[in-house]
Amino acid sequence: xxxxxxxxxxxxxxxxxxxxxxxxxxxxxxxxxxxxxxxxxxxxxxxxxxxxxxxxxxxxxxxxxxxxxxxxxxxxxxxxxxxxxxxxxxxxxxxxxxxxxxxxxxxxxxxxxxxxxxxxxxxxxxxxxxxxxxxxxxxxxxxxxxxxxxxxxxxxxxxxxxxxxxxxxxxxxxxxxxxxxxxxxxxxxxxxxxxxxxxxxxxxxxxxxxxxxxxxxxxxxxxxxxxxxxxxxxxxxxxxxxxxxxxxxxxxxxxxxxxxxxxxxxxxxxxxxxxxxxxxxxxxxxxxxxxxxxxxxxxxxxxxxxxxxxxxxxxxxxxxxxxxxxxxxxxxxxxxxxxxxxxxxxxxxxxxxxxxxxxxxxxxxxxxxxxxxxxxxxxxxxxxxxxxxxxxxxxxxxxxxxxxxxxxxxxxxxxxxxxxxxxxxxxxxxxxxxxxxxxxxxxxxxxxxxxxxxxxxxxxxxxxxxxxxxxxxxxxxxxxxxxxxxxxxxxxxxxxxxxxxxxxxxxxxxxxxxxxxxxxxxxxxxxxxxxxxxxxxxxxxxxxxxxxxxxxxxxxxxxxxxxxxxxxxxxxxxxxxxxxxxxxxxxxxxxxxxxxxxxxxxxxxxxxxxxxxxxxxxxxxxxxxxxxxxxxxxxxxxxxxxxxxxxxxxxxxxxxxxxxxxxxxxxxxxxxxxxxxxxxxxxxxxxxxxxxxxxxxxxxxxxxxxxxxxxxxxxxxxxxxxxxxxxxxxxxxxxxxxxxxxxxxxxxxxxxxxxxxxxxxxxxxxxxxxxxxxxxxxxxxxxxxxxxxxxxxxxxxxxxxxxxxxxxxxxxxxxxxxxxxxxxxxxxxxxxxxxxxxxxxxxxxxxxxxxxxxxxxxxxxxxxxxxxxxxxxxxxxxxxxxxxxxxxxxxxxxxxxxxxxxxxxxxxxxxxxxxxxxxxxx
Amino acid sequence: xxxxxxxxxxxxxxxxxxxxxxxxxxxxxxxxxxxxxxxxxxxxxxxxxxxxxxxxxxxxxxxxxxxxxxxxxxxxxxxxxxxxxxxxxxxxxxxxxxxxxxxxxxxxx
Lengths: 922, 109
Hints:
Structural class of chain A: mainly alpha
Strand order of the largest sheet of chain A: 1-2
Oligomer: heterodimer
Number of strands of chain B: 0
Helix content of chain B: 55-70%
Largest sheet of chain A: 2 strands, antiparallel
Number of domains of chain B: 1
Shape of chain B: elongated
Largest sheet of chain B: none
Radius of gyration of chain B: 18 Å
Number of helices of chain B: 3
Number of strands of chain A: 4
Radius of gyration of chain A: 39 Å
Distance between the termini of chain A: 75 Å
Shape of chain A: elongated
Order of helices and strands of chain B: HHH
Distance between the termini of chain B: 45 Å
Structural class of chain B: mainly alpha
């Protein structure tokens, strides 16, 4: 049931999109199905929650990291789900009439439902990691909702800012949650709540708390992260009414309430949470009075009220937590209705600027009454819901003990904020509905359609009902919700309207009187409309500065490293590598002893001389390309010789065959490129490059010398020891390739296949542009005939090397390269057309078959319940041949062989197609 | 012997880096080829050098370190794939920009 509840809004988000071509009412109804169905489900589930129980459902998701899809419906979750569905339903109804005809309603409602799903997810989640997933979802969906009017720059900017700030907070929260989970050994929230004492005593408590608070405060627009909320007012008003009164900004508070049993109760909690709440409360209330935009005023008022709730949660008292939950409900109702009223005013007059609005009482009397009641609730006027929670709040501020001067600062500052709260509430009403005459000639405001008023009426009625009969209406819900916050027994509290003459009442009276005086005084003496002052260091400004300078820095850095010249980039790369490589030796090269030394012999010296001469000639003659290519070939042969000399027969074979393939490849490419390289670099530049190159050579050569002459332990003794018993082969190199590190090899042949396919793709659209006089005009008959004669021999050799590879030098790579090389020689000697006719091979097919075979061998291990690529081997005794030792790794090696042949030939053949066809066979 | 190998590796690397820093694609391809020789040899000698002791079980009492050899073997093959890709890329770049300059904007040949 809970899973259905969580999935419902996401599934329902498709409805308004599917019905987007219908009428607007149909779209709205299709969207309304979700909250209605959700409320029905809640209704069914509620009775057990009211009896003190909770619904729970959990399926494992990623047990290894402690992430379970755990949902839990307790009192607090019930309250939040109820708020989300009820206000969501009203907002959908309101949006139906609010949006202009050319704004797509289906898109807005779909996004709204997706957002609703994310919020329900947060409310229901009983696993902190799962909460995080939904948390990020609310950030994303709210980004889309705030930026709904994507053609407006302020909407785009506001959405970006909200995403950046809440996204950053989400990261902090992730860190905090991981720490918390590490401390408690679980991410299940109900489990965490029981471990409060252990968590608070843990040395990481402070770090985890700060990170989690940053996450919650960014989401709930607490100082100093409050600035995104006013900028998010660029959203359509239904979105503001939903996100910024009842849901999104309450997510942070919800999290604080959820973690209240686990984290609260320490001094740090008090100072951080209550301190932030107090500053936010005053800052928001003060700023709200001086905003001229209706929604701006409401935004700052929201910030202030969120601060109030945070302050209550920070007080470390159960009674204060009850008051916090109560104010969450009350704030959601009156603020949503005020946003909707502001939307109606905007809709009817075309402006939200209080300096232009005046005297609307005559035109919108009904709206005026509704707005006045809601604003009075916001100000905390008796008989309305805001009054009750505000009284509880004032009473709580007076109970603070043992906090030094704060025990009187908090109530005093709270009263001060209360004064401003009354003042801005008064301004919302007076400045809009009275205070001058509306120029009806410009635009004639009308009362909104019947159905657009209903959501406001419902909410205002709730304000009144809760305010007058709290115990009959909100009492039970509040009790179960608060019980699940404080965990267990509730403290004694009374929801009565009249508590007698006491200090909280006096504070309320003072706030109301002074608030009225403040507003009318400011309006008369100071002229509020002329107020323009904005301090230069607002959070939004700071944010802009940070973002702009970040972008500037990034641009400069990019320009420095990548000014569009690859040549420049390579030199930066090499220089940085050099510097980093040099870094550990900057303090001097440590003393060392020569451990190992092999005597020099004449053959080695000759080989060395050939290599060095060929190398020197390559560099000096690199402008004559064909010559340089032949010289590089000589260098490669010397490298292969070195492999052979120093006990690496497999490497020598591979290097030799690769050399053949590479030279062939380059020969094919030469005619397609200029024959010579012009001298372009200045003397100075060449000298600079020479120095850098010499330094690189010195570094690499020096390190190599060091490594060779220092005795060290190797990890491969294990490979050697297990080669025969574990891998069934005596050629350790091959066993490592196809068995121990088979997955690595699997990746490598995949890379090779991708490279070959990439080349095919690159050449697919290549124009065969070439200079015809440079193309070979004949095919040597010797080569042609020799290649034909050598083909069967080479194939036999390949097969031999492939089969023996597991035990003696050889294997798939070498065999594949030999086959590839001989086929390539065949192609060069006889022309592609002739070769294709004689030997119809499908090279892409070979490639795919090879990969498939390697994959199948790997997957085969699964059939026996072993991990991917586990090999098996054993002896079979077929007649005549006698004892045959087989390993599944040989099949894998066959796959390697096929991939190598396919890739090599695919590359060479495609490149060869760019050559003119003038072979002997054609 | 170690000195010969180390100096060969150093010279290969220096020549490779120098050619990589040149402005024409062909020189860069040559440079990368040389550089991969240098790096392959470098990784190979990390296991120390042995003469006449191939890593075949039973062929000799002591044997060369097989792990660097296995690493280098695949590196050689991948190096071929990379060189081929690079060559084709430079052919395509020349067709597209009418120049074989690495930045595409050099004077047409």
